Amino acid sequence: METLLQQTINGLSLGSVYALIAVGYSLVYSILLFSNFAHGGFLVIGGYICYFTLKSLGFNIWIAGFASLVGAGFSAVLTERLAYKPIRERTNVTLYLLIASMGMSIVIENIFVIVAGGRFRALPPVIPTHPVHIFGLATTSAFDILSLLAAVFFLGALQLFLIKTKWGLAIRAAAYDLRTAGLMGVNVNLLISIVFFVAGFLAAVGGIFLSVRYTLYPQLGMITIKAFVAAVIGGLGSLPGAVVGSLILGLAEMLTAGFISSQLRDLVVFSLLIITLLVRPQGLFGKNISEKV
Amino acid sequence: MAAIPQDMILELESINKFFGGVHAVRDMSFSIQKGELAGLIGPNGAGKTTIFNLVTGVYSPDSGHITFLGEEITSLKSYQVIRKGVARTFQNLRLFQRSSALENVMVAMQQHHQYSFLEGLSHLGRWSSMEREIKQRSLDILDRVGLIERAHQAAGTLPYGMQRRLEIGRALALEPEFLLLDEPAAGMNPEEVFELNHLIQGIHRDFMLTILVIEHHMDVIMQICPHIICMNFGAKIAEGDPDDIQVHPEVLKAYLGEEVEE
Amino acid sequence: MSGYTEGIIILLCINAIAAMGVSVLTGFTGIFSLGHAGYMAVGAYTTAILTVEYGVHYIPAILLGGAMAMVIAYVIGVPTLKLMGDYYAIASIGLGEAIRLILENWQSVTRGARGYPGIEGYTTLYVSLAFFAVMAFGMFNLINSRFGRAFKACRDDYIAASLLGFNTARYRILSLVISAFYCGVAGALLGGFLSFIQPIMFDMIKSTELTSVVVFGGLGSMSGTLLGASIITLVTELFRPISQYRMLIYGAILVLIMVIRPEGIMGQYELGPRLFRRLKDKFSFRNRDNSEGRSS
After folding, report:
1. Is residue B169 part of a domain?
2. Which chains touch C (3 or more CB pairs under 8 A)?
3. Among residues B31, B35, B30, B41, which one has the least CA distance to residue B1?
4. Which distant-in-sequence residues (6+ apart) come within 8 Å of A92 by Cβ?
5. Terminal Cα distance for chain C, rounded
6. Is A191 a domain residue?
7. DSSP per-residue string spanning A126-163
């Protein structure tokens, strides 16, 4: 019983970090309709900015965190401007964007291999990881609770941004139809930049928590595959879907690790993906897409 | 009329189709006899294309039966319906844009010249004779629809009217018994429409085909179709020959709108 | 011939075989897979186990490796190929990774993550050339047959294809199964070339590489695929001394191709009369434009 509660909290915590990554990825998908494989790169950029800021400017997580989120946001915008904008302005073949994003993902990863080296780095202990007892029922770490709270905070902020602001409204309109939104006078390029900034920003939050959990290394971005899986389980392009999918995935992973075997957790993740798609090909919250004949 | 053999080729029996809350096709029944050149008319959004989609297995009806040559095809998949001898064109052209006009026809023509996988892999056996035949017969079809000069041009770069004719050619290559044409005259100028009418009547005669044409331009249909079905809001409102249809009050209402009493 | 040159030629053959497999699926049938390294792994492990544990001769063992990849592809393809576009791409990552994880965890058969050593070095120059020649012959024949046209029809418009009487689901599976066979054989040959295989060799990066080669060569061009595979293999060898920059350059090239020439080196054209005719047309059009320009 104690393990169950503990693994549930750990699962929700891990799932909420996936959610931060998956939501950004899903947001980009909803606007440009392609899988941005460079999304993992944004997370790595965020992680390294945080690491080096902490090392050089002293151990202030607020400064480092801020620099990391904004830096990753701008890197995402830059990635879009350099690699995707020229393509999307020329064709509407989303496959080309997808392949370019695979290229950018390799580029970003290897910039860090060259600049920072391939070794694993532990973030300085700026986020508390001491054990916390919950009503005497279970023991978990402060880190898990913090990452859960941070995720809730940022996802809530995103929701407010999308509902309350002018740009949020424009983004929701563009998710229905980007071209029409453009015809209605929305500055499409600026809108896409904002979306990428938000995606990079949220990925960096995930990146910081993941580098505390697993240490930081150039290939850390590979973990976004799980966030992609979560987004697909939830339904590509659906933000609530991305969050629910992420929580399911986090729980499945931690419960497998707790009760079956730690080695099988990834296998469970991928089986979950395939089963969901077989039962519900458009994902849990996805729109049923049928082409007009 | 007595010259036409009295066997049904297609029969729709109280077909209903819903899309969400929209009752797209209501209690639709009609039948087409072998050898007919029939027309399906109605205002935009009347459900004409939905009828084609139901017949060709793109959608399956929520209730009712569809029979083709006496055989129930209601729940068959598209490719199964096509293999029974049905072919169709599309309102918004669906050619293989990057392939040449010839390849577009060949891909349909090959359905009746099926050599085995091993023959395809090795180019031995029937491969060469069948490929030659596929190509030759496809060229014949292109000639019939007046596109032989454009055989090697990418389909997507052909002028619009030619693309419409290429789609008819591709459907003919399936050697169907029953051909469904979905607004073949859409976007054509009067001269092209005249040629098209000529082509449709020609293939109807030469290939001994049964044809059902969708149009919402009444004048096109009135000229070529002796049997016309008119629908509006998903239901059949009239059926008969052009003279009947032209004066049918329901048809006039559908096309001209309800007369307002002063 | 030096051992080094020989090695490069063998590697070229292996990469070309795998790339042809991905090409028929991605370039010709329009199914984007990011898990094909998994099928290479199945081929490699099946052949390794058959030759090492059961003493099977390498030629039937390689073919059985390919056949095993086909069987696995069929079993997972039937349900998953219903998925379209990005959904299948993500699912294929899952499938590829699942195969790798199973190989890593199935210690008793695969010896786990540390790899499978001691494979007989059966992939000699002549073996690899012979496999390449036969398989390339078959592949080019296939795409120039009714099957190639059917694949392209499914790729370009699956609704139109099914309304021309194609059972599109069946052709999608057929394409996947053929592509798995090619990748399986390539994996088996790789095992015989390196004498050692390890699950991590067949991860998502390898899958991405396979797909990029095909895109680089031109989606829908088999000769482009061979050209792409050769260039990427040679460039990879060229940059071996500065290996840390290798992947960086590789990624940058991928982006650049998409920005500059997304249709790949060859577009959808094959080296042959059709390309020649097209070039001629282009050229004559240009002449006509020029003369019109002068006359006006």
Report:
1. yes
2. A, B
3. B35
4. none
5. 61
6. yes
7. -S---EEEETTTEEEEHHHHHHHHHHHHHHHHHHHHHH
Which residue in A25, A29, A35, A222 has the most chain C C-beta atoms within 10 A of its own C-beta, making it the best mutation to test that interface? A35
Please count the other Cβ atoms lying within 10 Å of the Cβ belonging to residue B143.
Answer: 13
Q: CA A165 to CA C233: how far, in whole Å?
A: 51
Are residue B26 and residue B72 in the same domain, yes or no? yes
Query: Out of B58, B113, B121, whose CB is closest to C141?
Result: B121
Q: Is pLDDT at B261 greater than 50 in this prediction?
A: no
Q: Chain A: residue nearest C98 by CA?
A: A267
Could you tell me if C59 lies within 8 Å of chain A, comparing CB atoms? no
CA distance A273 to A270: 5
**Rounded CA separation B8/B67 (Å):** 9
Query: C50 in contact with A at a CB cutoff of 8 Å?
Result: no
Residue B70, in any domain of the structure: yes
Distance from CA of B150 to the nearest CA of C (A): 13
Query: What residues are paired with B154 via a beta bridge?
Result: B100
In this prediction, residue C274 carries a pLDDT of: 67
Rounded to 10 degrees, the C-alpha dihedral A44/A50/A54/A60 comes to -150
Strand order across the beta sheet in which B63-68 lies: B22-33, B8-19, B63-68, B71-72
Grade residue A55 by pLDDT with cuts at 50, 70 and 90.
confident
Q: Which whole number is the average pLDDT over B72-91?
A: 93
pLDDT value at A108 more than 90: yes
| Nearest-by-CA chain A residue for B58 | A293
Flag whether residue A111 sits within 8 Å of chain C, measured between CB atoms. Answer: yes
Of B90, B107, B127, the CB nearest to C149: B107
Give phi and psi for A236, each to the nearest 5. -55, 135
Q: What range defines the domain where residue A87 resides?
A: 2-221
Provide the token pair at C270.
Answer: 């094959």
User: What are the Cα distances from residue A173, in Å, to A80, A203, A226?
Assistant: 20, 23, 28
Cα dihedral: B63, B69, B75, B81 (round 10): -140
> Nearest CA to B218 among B235, B192, B193, B201?
B193
Q: What is the pLDDT of residues B27-44, one digit of tens each?
A: 999 999 999 999 999 888
Give a yes or no: residue A188 inside a domain: yes
B207 touching chain A per CB within 8 A: no
Q: Let me know if residue A125 belongs to a domain.
A: yes
Tokens of C186: 């390539």
d(CA C65, CA C69): 6
Q: Residue A293: inside a domain, yes or no? A: no
Task: Give the range of the structural domain holding residue B114, as residue numbers without chain letter.
Answer: 96-176
Retrieve residue C28's tokens.
Answer: 């010709």
| pLDDT (tens digit per residue) in B166-188 | 999 999 999 999 999 999 988 88
Residue B262 belongs to some domain of the structure:
no
The mean pLDDT value of chain C amounts to 87
Identify the closest residue of chain B to C162 by CA–CA distance.
Answer: B79
Size of interface A-B (CB pairs under 8 A): 4
**Contact present, A210 and A196 (Cβ < 8 Å):** no
Q: How many domains does chain A have?
A: 1
Q: Do A267 and C105 touch (CB under 8 A)?
A: yes
pLDDT at residue B1, rounded to an integer = 41
Report, as an integer, the average pLDDT of C149-168.
94
Q: What is the rounded distance in angstroms from the CA atom of residue B232 to the CA atom of residue B250? A: 9
C29 in contact with A, Cβ within 8 Å: no
CA separation for the pair A267, A245 (Å, rounded) = 16
